[in-house]
Amino acid sequence: MRTKLLLVLLALSITGFAQVQLPDTPAGHQIGAWLQAFDGGDRAAFLAFLEKNYPSRVKNVDRDMDFRKMTGGFDLRKVEDASMPTKVVALVQERDSDQFAQMTVEVSAVEPYPITQMGINAIPRPAEFPLSKFSQGELVAALKTKLQKDSAAGNFSGDVLLASRGKSVFEEAYGLADREKRAPNTLNTRFRVGSMNKMFTAIAVLQLVQLGKVNLDDPLGKYLPDYPNKDVASKVTVQNLLTHTGGTGDFFGPEFDVHRLELKTFDDYVKLYGNRPLRFEPGSKWEYSNYGFLLLGLVVEKASGQSYYDYVRDHLYKVAGMTSTGSEPENTHVANLSTGYTGMGVKDGGTRPNGDTLPYRGTSAGGGYSTVDDLLLFADALQANKLLNAQYTEMLTTGKPGTPDNSYAFGFEDRRVNGVRCFGHGGGAPGMNGMLQVCPTTGYVVAVLSNLDPPAATRVADFMLNRLPQ
Length: 470
Fold this sequence. Notes:
Blueprint: H1 2-15, H2 26-40, H3 43-53, H4 61-71, E1 74-84, E2 87-94, E3 100-107, E4 115-123, H5 136-152, E5 158-164, E6 167-174, E7 176-178, E8 183-184, E9 191-192, H6 197-210, H7 230-235, H8 238-242, H9 254-259, H10 266-273, H11 290-304, H12 308-320, E10 341-342, E11 352-353, E12 369-370, H13 372-383, H14 390-397, E13 413-417, E14 420-429, E15 432-439, E16 444-450, H15 456-465
Antiparallel strand pairs: 1-2, 2-3, 3-4, 5-6, 5-16, 7-8, 9-12, 10-11, 13-14, 14-15, 15-16
Helix pairs in contact: 1-2, 2-3, 6-11, 6-12, 10-11, 12-13
């Protein structure tokens, strides 16, 4: 009885939510003890726990501590399965976000019952744990409190915008754009946007489709007849590239790291990666492909007769009124551009500038920079059908069959957040994270840009999206 009572008390101390009772089993004891050690955030204490209870994990202690910093720890929300004494499946929630995960712990059947296997996998928020909708005033107040806390803890640095029907209702800057110079982020600060560039690329392609210069069913080889791998050129269509169903793979990895600063043009990427075979038959599965969107940049160039950078400047940025967005080479001075700070390779929760991870220049797959105000102008121009007509705007932003949960459109994600449909795209790489989401039925636009590692901006965006007024 005493042991059961202690387990209930432990669960209460961990959660701060409704009482969750852990099973009085070897696995129940271990999952409770792991949560207590992990949530405490003390590396020495957590290492001592691992050495005694999960020795095979000791080598990953620093990675686990980075994970602890990212999540803030976990609150136990529900025990899903405790039918076996050596296994527990539970639902936990990150303390610093709304994100849920399913946690599975298996232990040895022999004393002292060490952990033999453990997994923590992110899952959509279960329907049994709904989040309340806020009024606009309540949301702004809660957002201010969250951002002050997160920025003080070093978990957020960047700009945040919430707009309703085209008008900003909250817009603030937090943290430093340059730590060495002690220069603060301002609402004019430009942040690298990572894969958010894919939205611009997809619009450029559909503009050319709308003009009859590109056909979605055309094979890549129609626009790149000299493409090295003829199988790729003949089988992969423009639509495959737009939906990440082409099997064209990624370009990030060891090879990219070696040649990072040599890859100055789109053709340089094709010379390095163009002989690779397909990863799968086009259209047979979905796999996120930065290289596929790089190839779309070449399609834009061949079909329009302009460089990709000139095309998006003339036909997208200028049309939307975006004056602080671009993709200049990293060795070019860009006014008001923030320095990115990454924890990659830094112990004890520290950060360093991300300059040695950046490509020579942003591409049609990602990179470049923008501001939250420019992203609002972009969202407004898109919704007003200034960039595409209504038919093609709908085609652009509507999720396509063959993508995960039919939720990926053409360079846009199309999803429901707490019952509200929103579309947009995020971007993330070492020292940068951004998110734009447009929720047309409610009239809200959420834009967050950060000069820290993911998920700094994503978490702030999700906090707003999960609580938007209907």
